[in-house]
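Following the same procedure, the fold was encoded as tokens, giving this record:
***
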Amino acid sequence: ASSEELVTPPQFDPATLSPAVAEKRAMIIEADEMIHNGMLTIERARRKYLAASEDDPCSDEIQEVGKCYHFIERQQAGAARQGAAAAPSLSRSVLRCGPYVERLEKCTAALTQKHVVQAADP
């Protein structure tokens, strides 16, 4: 195979994971789903109130989380190309994004509180 040909990775079968790895995978998937749902909620609220994207007070935090996950995804893909032995633990890699996710959570909590207070004021 030439270096320009795409190599298709083997199909992933979750049934082949050990129970501990399967549990960590499920936790990561659940956390990822919660983050995406939170981001969708922010986007829906932004659209509902017709605020321009650049006016989103949490856009920097959202960008940081996205960049971190994108970096982890590229790192995992690169490690997979080099062989499974070189691949860093996905759960440890994703946990490195924790500080960015925490900042996003704080920002969205503050934004939510601000809107709750504004909605309560007649």
Notes: The two ends are 69 Å apart (CA to CA). The chain has one domain: 16-120. The CA atoms of residues 69 and 97 lie 7 Å apart.
